[in-house]
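WARN no homologs supplied; continuing
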Amino acid sequence: MVYDTAKQLAGELRSSAEYAEYAEARERAMENPATRALIGQYNTLQIKAQAEVVAGKQDGEALQKLKKIGELLQFDADASAYLMAEYRLKRMLGDVYKILAEAVDVDLGPLEG
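OK structure emitted
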């Protein structure tokens, strides 16, 4: 029963406006090899910067690079639209996860943003 409900929820997520916007923006942004490479670097640096924060050894280099690439991506309309759509989709998924965790009294701790 729970898995059936999860599959139904997955279908609703795939049918959501947030996902449709994300998929369309991703397709446009990834058509350009330079934009695709910058987005890849941005995602890698995002993970590295988050790991530094969690480890408590933040030297700022990853954050500076992240900021510079983020500024470049802001000037690319397709990349900017993709990153905003991705943010909205991830926020929705985070909200769903929070609702599920609260239903079973699980502390998300550092996963909550």
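Helices lie at 2-14, 17-30, 33-55, 61-74, 77-103.
OK
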